[in-house]
Amino acid sequence: MQRFAGRIILLWGWRRALVAFAAGALSVLAQAPYDFFAVCFVSFPVLVWLLDGATGEASDGWFRRLRPAFATGWWFGFGYFLAGLWWIGQALLVEADNFAWALPFAVVGIPFALAFFYGFATVVARLFWSSDIGRIAALAFGFGLAEWLRDFLFTGFPWNAVGYAAMPVPLLMQSVSVTGMIGMNALAVFVFSLPALVAARRHLRLGIALFVILVAAHVGFGYFRLATTVEPTRSIDVRIVQPAVDLSEKWDASVRDRIFATLLGISGKAPEEGHAKPQLILWPETSVPFLFTERPDALTALGDMLADGQMLIAGVVREEGGSANSGSRYYNSVVAINDKGEIVDAVDKVHLVPFGEYLPFADLFERFGIGQLVAGPMNFAAGNERHPIGVPGGLRAAPFICYEVIFPDLVAADSASSDVIVNVTNDAWFGDTPGPYQHFRQAQIRAVENGLPLLRAANNGISAIVDSRGRIVDALAVDARGAIDAHVPVSGRALLSAEQRRINGLLIMLLFALIAFTLNVRQRLRVN
Questions:
Q1: How many Å apart are CA 476 and CA 77, to the nearest integer?
Q2: Deepest of 7, 143, 324, 331, by most Cβ within 10 A of its Cβ?
Q3: Are residues 521 and 478 in the same domain?
Q4: How far apart are CA 26 and CA 83, in angstroms?
Q5: Do 411 and 507 share a domain, yes or no?
Q6: Looking at the structure, do residues 282 and 197 belong to the same domain, yes or no?
Q7: Could you tell me the pLDDT band of residue 42, with boundaries at 50, 70 and 90?
Q8: 3-class DSSP state for residue 275?
Q9: Region of residue 154 (phi > 0: left; psi between -120 and 50: alpha; otherwise: beta)
C-alpha cells in the first residue's frame, strides 16, 4: 500500500489530473441508483495522496503554492459532477431540434462550474495540511465548507452532496436527523478518507478506532431509531397518481383532453383492496395540461370526480394579469381543489430553476436568441412565499415543487408547522437515467431530517409514500402508469429543530478545522 500511495503522490501534470478525474467519477457510484458506497473508501484516499503531492516550490508565492491543490480538487470535482450529472442533457433532447445546440453547455458547463467548489475545498484543506490524521480532518472541513456554500451560492445547487453517499438505506439515514447535511457531509469525507492512513501508518491505530466508533454510532443510532415505535396521533388516506405522460405530447393542444381524461380515470377508480377511499389525491407538477382560466369546465369535471370530503392537490400552471396594460405572469404552482370543484388554496414555486423555468439576464440572452431551455412554453415568475395547505383530517401539508425539495434549509423552514411534506415533480425530462433516482433519494432524506412523512407524485416516476424514518411505504417505478393508495400515519416532528441541526453540523465542521489547525501547527513547530 505504501508503494501504491507513493506512486499516486509522485504523479504530476496530465497524469495527476487524469487520476483525480477518475477518482471523482468513481465516487458517483456511491450515489443513487447504484448506492455502492464502498468506492468512496478508494476514491477519497486517492484524493488524499494526490493532495500529499500537490505542493508548490517554497520560493513560490501563496497563490502558486496552492494552485496544484486547487487543480487536483477541481479535476476530482469535474469527474464527480460530469459522471453524476450527465443526464441533465437528456432534457435538451426532448426537443432536440431546438435545444441540441446547448447540450455541451449543460453536460460539460455545469460540472465545469460546480468543480470550482471542490477546488475550493482542497485549497482550504491544503492550508491546514499535515502528514498525519490532521490532513484527513482538513479535507473533511474543506468539503464540509464547500458543500455548505453549494447549498446557497449562485441560487444554490446542492445536488449529490457527498454526504448522501453515506445514507443509501434508511438504517444509515437516521444520523442526519442530528447532524443535518452540513455535519453529514464533513463526517462522510472524514470516514471515507481514513484508509489513507494505512500507507504512512502514522496515527493508524487512532484512525482505526475513530473509524469503528463513527461507523458503529452511525449504524447503531439508525437501528435504535428504526426500532423505536412512535404512536401516530393522526392519519390520512392518500392516493398518489402517476400518469406517465409523454413529454412530446405534454403541451400538444390536440391531446390535452386525453391527458386530462387519463388523470381523471386514475384518480376516480375504486380503492385497491384493503384500502379506504382516499381523502387526498395528489397529481404531479404541471400535470393539468391547460390553464384553468381557459377551461373552467375542467374544474366542473374535477368536482364531479371528487367524492364528498375528498381534496385534490394538483400541479398546474397558474396565470395572473393579462390586462391591456401588462402581460400575463405565469407561476409553476400547486392548487388545492375541494369536492365542489373550487380552488381553495394555491402555492407558487418560490425557488425556480435557472434557464429551465426562467432566464437570468433575460434581455441580454434574448439578444442572442437564447431563451429558456426545458420547462415549458413560458417563463415562470417566482412565488413570494410558501405556506402549508390544509388537507382533510385537520392536517397541514407543506408543498415543494420539483427540485425545491433538495434544499435542506428551505424544506426545514417551510415544513416546521406542517404534518406532511408534499413533493410534486416532472422528472420525465430526464427519462430512465440516474437523475430521477438521485432526486428521489434527496426527497427521502428530507423526510428523515424533518420527521415527517413524504407524499411524492412524479409524472413518470418515482412516485412514492415515505414514512418519517425514510422507509418507502409504496412506490411506482419510472415510466409506470397508475396510482398508489396508502393509509399514512402522522406521528411526530423532527428529532431536533432545524436550527439545532445546523448548529451541530457547524460544530462538527469546526471541530475538524480545530484538529487540522492544531496538528498543522504542531508539525510546523516540530520541523522548525
A1: 33
A2: 143
A3: no
A4: 8
A5: no
A6: no
A7: very high
A8: coil
A9: left
Chain segment 221-259, per-residue pLDDT in tens:
999 999 998 888 899 999 999 999 988 777 777 889 999
Say what the pLDDT of residue 324 is: 47
Phi first, then psi, for residue 324 (nearest 5°) are: -65, -25
Tell me whether the omega of the peptide bond preceding residue 462 falls within 30 degrees of 0, making it cis.
yes
Radius of gyration of the chain (CA): 25
E strand or H helix at 52: helix 40-52
Q: How distant is the alpha carbon of residue 374 from its chain centre?
A: 19
Please tell me the distance from the alpha carbon of residue 42 to that of residue 402, in angstroms, as a whole number.
33
Distance CA 226, CA 41 (A): 26
Residues 11 and 94 in one domain: yes
Number of domains within the chain: 2
From residue 328, alpha-carbon distances to 78, 293, 319, 380 in Å are 40, 12, 6, 10
Task: List Cβ neighbours of 385 (8 Å cut-off, separation of 6 or more).
Answer: 350
> Which residues in 122-266 belong to E strands, given as ranges?
234-242
DSSP characters for 107-127? Answer: IIIHHHHHHHHHHHHHHHHHH
Which of 76, 104, 73 is closest to 89 using CA atoms? 104
201 and 242 housed in the same domain: no
- Whether pTM > 0.90 for this model: the answer is yes
One domain for residues 217 and 270? no
* Catalytic residue annotation: 285, 349, 402
If asked whether residues 80 and 222 sit together in one domain, one would say: yes
Q: 343-348 and 389-391: which strand pairing?
A: unpaired
Beta strands in 169-255 (DSSP E): 234-242
Residue 443 contacts residue 449 (beta carbons within 8 Å): no
Residues 257 and 389 in one domain: yes
Q: Quick: pLDDT tens for 66-104.
A: 899 999 999 999 999 999 999 998 877 766 666 777 788
> Model confidence over 352-405: pLDDT tens digits?
887 777 766 555 555 555 555 545 556 788 888 899 999 999 999 999 999 999
Cα-Cα-Cα-Cα dihedral sign, residues 504, 508, 510, 515: positive
Tens digit of each residue's pLDDT (9 = 90 or more) over 187-229: 999 999 999 999 877 899 999 999 999 999 999 999 999 999 8
Mean pLDDT of the chain: 91
In whole angstroms, give the CA distance from residue 380 to residue 286. Answer: 12
